[in-house]
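Write out a record, fold above all:
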Amino acid sequence: MQRSLNTYQLSFTPKQIIALIVIFVFLGLNSCSENSDKIVRESLDVEQFNVDQIIEGDFTFDEDNLIENVVLVEGVIQDINNLNNRSTIILKGKKDTDRLVICDMQKNQKLTTNSLNLGDEISVKGILKGTLNDVILLNCIIPQPKTNE
């Protein structure tokens, strides 16, 4: 008993097609908002590391539950780029190594990143997304030093 595909014809009215499109768009936008990255603020208390600790550390980010959490990383600027209208800072440690920390900056940090120079030692706060060879931080900010007034 073989049935041909012609016996199963689907027909949709224009209203049904529009309703399906609206549903798919709504579901897509809803899932994007649920998975959107946190906005990093200076006031957040965070785990603090320097680049050398991350690279040589005995801990794994998964086991320490740091993935998707805000961390503060201290390092030396190896590169700053503004490709595709996005500011990215690449940090290295004081020791020679191939592993780096890649910090994708928030848009409101553009003026701050423009005032930085290669070789500057800075702290960057961002959401730890994970590691391959390098460590990836998203939505990064450069916290301003606290003053005691």
